[in-house]
Design a protein that fits this description.
Elements (H helix, E strand, L loop, with lengths): L2 E2 L18 E3 L8 E3 L9 H21 L8 H33 L3 H5 L2 E9 L4 E3 L1 H12 L10 E12 L5 E12 L2 E14 L2 E9 L1 E5 L68 H6 L19
Parallel strand pairs: 1-3, 4-9
Antiparallel strand pairs: 2-3, 4-5, 6-7, 7-8, 8-9, 8-10
Length: about 300
Amino acid sequence: MSRISLCVDSQKPSIAGRLGASLRVPSIAGRPGASLHVSSIAGRLGAALAAVLFACVMPAAFAQSAGSSGARPPASARLDALDKRITRLEDLNQIERVQRTYGYFVDKSQWRQLAELFTDDSTLEIGGKGIFTGKPRVLEYMQTAFGPDGAKEGSLANHMQFQSIPDIAPDGKTGWIRSRAYVMSLGGWGLPLYENEYRKENGVWKISRLTGPFTMYTSWDGWGKNALNNTWPDKFDPPPDLPPSIVYLTYPAYYIIPFHYPNPVTGKPFVPDKGDVGAYQAPPGTKAQIESMKVGRQADGTQAIAEPPRD
């Protein structure tokens, strides 16, 4: 009995262990059957996807068994493309999970756990406070501004997140998300909109840049009665490492946070006016100021973003 083993390049993540048990192709016109060894996806995508894969791979297997050249790519190439599609979907899910996990850690003041979501060279910018650089400074900011780790009696700080749009760069190493949050706490209400960047390190997605401009602050009276100012660098400790990447006003003024992605229909970027106003680390034109402008900057929708694979 002949066998056809279908697998991807050994230098790439194998589909082995991802797409179902061994599949047997029946004999064709007296020819021996072919077993398609595609290792188990059990526990990940289930029997349903294995069946879909079977339906997808069988025509190529029959073509090989019958000696037909055909116009379709070889089965190994199709499995390689399928592996890339699955990896991309898994990456999108992981980015969303990291972002949502961040929100749950904020809820209960789990600052040490939260800091572990960040890369060592990450940046964090929330509201108008300014930019904090590096994982240790992320932890210092959280513990200094909001108190020590752990939920506290009489404390409320729910950080609810919605409308997340994740994306992955063509190289699969960098990702972004646009995600709205609604914050309710003892101090009142807040409305941040995240435009974050992520990096895949040793197969694990982490936050490399957190940018969360608050577009509305208010007390319990509500934004219709008591809209509050944006935060600023010296409003509370600790002081930031760099000034805000952009100076903007909160509601009733408005600020359009730049989109990391282009228009999904036209493919054209929408780049709102985001001129730098009065936020200087050093005198304008100096080397220190030029270098500071490269840190913690938001994506603006003009960079190449990987589109979903198309058949």
